[in-house]
Amino acid sequence: MSIEKRVIGTLIAFPDKYNDVSDILTIGSFNEPETKAIFDVFVTLYAEDADISLSLLQERIKKTEHPCSIVDVIDYLDSGSSFIEHCQILKEKDVKREQLRLSLELMSKAQDEKEDPFETNDYLMEQAEKVVSMVDFGKRNSNLQLITSVTKKMELAQNSQGVTGIKTGFIELDKVYGGRQKSDLIIKAARPAMGKTAQALCEAKHMAFEENKRVIFFSLEMSAEQLMQRLVSVHTGIPLGTIRSGRLTPKQWDEYNQKADYLTSDNLVIVDDVYSLNGIRTRCKKLKMKGGLDAIYIDYLQLINHKVGAGRSKEQEVSEISRALKMLAKSLDVPVVCLSQLSRAVETRGGTHKPMLSDLRDSGAIEQDADIVEFVFRPEYYEKEDPSLHGVAYVIIAKHRNGACGDIEMRFKHECTRFENVTIEPMVITSTKMKPNNNFDEVPF
Q1: pTM
Q2: ∠ at Cα 429 (425, 434), nearest 5°?
Q3: Helix, strand, or coil here: 395?
Q4: What are the pLDDT digits (tens) for 66-98?
Q5: How far apart are the first and last CA of the chain?
């Protein structure tokens, strides 16, 4: 007797049983054309909240590519005691079919001289994740567990001045976010030369060395050595140009020798040899399994290599990447901070050139997938003749899924590309063009 028919027969006789197996059964769980067609129609009717009857099912089945008699299936129903077990058997068979399909595809690609072996590796990782996810039904939390978790977070927030996530080192930023929160996707965007890499590096440095967190920083644009030069400049205060030229004064050498060892901790992992989305996911998962992982930084989104189908646009590619990064943040339960470029619309708009969400380059999906979108903005870049703007910088919070938006003022030290907290009274800006929005009381919906 066909297990597929027994499962389908039970679902037809007792439609409510689908609630118990909806996370096990999919259309791929069925291999026989007739049972596959019946299950497809059943799920469609169930989703429509229709009154599923034999006559309605039979009428819909007639319109499919595999019309069959429902009566031939209804007699196969389970007594109920082995229904769940039979569904699990169907899932196992589905997984085995997918494993076989993947192995045959890999064999074909491996034997084809025209196939790039590194691209085949990326394909293997992507497909293997899909197969693994077929049996990953996720964890279920009871309401009691959820309430307990919420209570603990409230107590932690009360005892830590509202900071429940990882501190960035920027006081006002941490007040707004409560620190970088687990499973958040943060898009940090700016035009070139605004300092988005420098600001992200300052955050990562604080997390790794001051907060003792495990941070991975993917540098797709600069080499690891160049990034370390920046890190040394940020930490020691020695101008970046001086470090690159090696023309340090005796005093600067003393400063370097005293402080450089501080940066040798492996809490900050700099990766400059990974360019693909699958490579990023693999490296993060390995680090999570081996020594733990608390935060991910990626510089920057538009440089991530991700193969999509022929004829797909750059916008579709970026959309898939941003969605995958959000899934990565959720699956690893860590904040993912991904840098991004802004379009040239910022330059041509005039006025203050203050960026907006519509300036996000290549895809509107970035704005949709991100929990937080923030812009790094230095008005002095556009108003070089105004001395009051020298060293003034802002992190503009343009989207905050769980809070308010506004502008955080900071200081930027050009010589060592370091962002700092405003430790004195905010500068009086004589220019009337830039009007920061510091209203964090209103939460936008």
Answers
A1: 0.67
A2: 120
A3: strand
A4: 777 776 666 666 656 688 888 888 888 888 888
A5: 56
